[in-house]
Write a structure and sequence with these properties.
116 residues, alpha+beta, GIY-YIG endonuclease, three-stranded antiparallel beta sheet, 3 strands, 41% helix
Amino acid sequence: MDRKKELKQQYKETKIQAGVYQIKNTKNNKVFIESTNNLKTINGRQFMLKMGGHPNKALQEELNSFGEDAFVIEVLETLKEKPEGYYSVKDELKKLEEKWMDQLQPYGERGYHRKK
């Protein structure tokens, strides 16, 4: 019973990391980029893809046709917290995601996003 309490406490003390990740099709190198407040939720996205319920239909269709082994999920960058002053995780995460969108240009033949 003490082990269970110890694990719960350890879970509560574990720092949540925000960041940007990509889901990459290794067959055609197309990528889907997304940010999250908690990088541990990537497993949930992976499960959503396996179950056929990902909101990005193009990504879901290619996963269905190529198979899940053709895809890898990689963390591109974790958000570094600023030690002082006002800090909005949401705003900083949006900037970080935009940086990676600009850098990788995951549109058309290169990715699963549509230009806005």
